Amino acid sequence: MQHTATISRLKAAGAPPRLSGLAQWADRHFKWLLVAPAVLLILALSVYPLLFSLVVSFINYDFQVPGHAFVGLKNFERVVFDPVARWSLLLTAWLSGISVAIEFVLGLLVALTMVRSFPGRGVIMSILIVPLFISPVIVGQAWTLLLQRPFGPTNYILTQLLGQEVTIGWMTESPWLYVSLIIADVWQWTPFMFVILLAGLTAIPPNLYEAAELDGVNAWQAFWAITLPHLAPMMLLALTFRLLDAIRMFDTIFIMTGGGPGTRTYTASYYLYTVGFTQFHLSQATAGSWLFLIFTALVVMLLVRRLLKTEPV
Fold first, then answer.
1. For residues 39 and 53, what is the distance between their CA atoms, to the nearest angstrom?
2. Which spans are transmembrane here (predicted)?
3. Domain range for residue 164?
4. Residue pLDDT, tens place only, 57-66
C-alpha cells in the first residue's frame, strides 16, 4: 500500500516514470540504434559479397565442374598467365589514359572559354553537359549508328570532305576500332572535366588577375603563374575521379565492338565478364576481380597521396 501511494504521489507531482532495464539500455544507445539498419544493410549488400568472393577465389566454383574443392592460388595463376588477361589490362590502361588525357585538355579549354560571361552562355553550358545524362549504352549505340559501315554517315561525310572514297571499318579495323571507342568516351565525359574545372576557375579570386594586368603580365603568363597553381588541386581531383571511372570501361565496348574482333577490345571489365558469365569460370573471374581491385587500389593510393600534397600557391 505504501509503494502504491508513493507511485501515486510521483504521478501527481509530474515525475517521469522509472524506465525498465531494456528501456534504459535503448536510451543510452539510441544513436547506435538509429544507424543500425543502415549498417546491417551495408554488411548484407557489400561486406558479405566481398568476403564470399574472396572465398570463391580460392575454391573451384565452376558451373561446368561439380563440387567446390579448395585449389589455393590456382585461380590467380590462371589469370596471371593468361595472355588475354594481360592484354586486357594493358588495353585498359592504354584506352583510359588516352581518353582521360584528351578529355582533360578539351575540358580545360572549354572551361577557360566559358569562365567569362557572354550572351547565350547559359544555353551553351546546358547543351555542353547533355552527354553526361545519357546512358553509356545509348552513347555506344548512337556512335555505332554513326560509324558503322556501310550505313553510317561518317565515311560519306569524310568522302565529301576529302574528295576521295573513304571506306574505314570503324568497328572492325585496327587502329580505327580503338579510335571509335576513344571518340565515344571523349564525347560523353569531356563535360565532366569541364564542369569540375569550371568550378575551380570560378573560385580563383579575380583581384589576382587584376593585379597581374596592372603589372603588365600577359594572358599566357597569368595562366602559368595564377591559374595553373590555383587550379592544380581541382585538376588532380578531376583526373582521379575520371580515371577511376574510365578503367571500368565496359558499356560502350559491349555495344560497339562486343570485345572483338577476337579479343582486340577486351578491357579488364570485359575480360572478367566473359570469363565469369560467358565461360562460367566464376572462380577464375573472381580471382581476376581481386587482382584488378588491388591494381586499382594502388593507383588510387598514389593519386590520393598526390592530391593531398597538392595545395594552391
1. 20
2. 32-59, 87-111, 123-146, 191-209, 221-241, 285-304
3. 79-309
4. 998 887 777 7
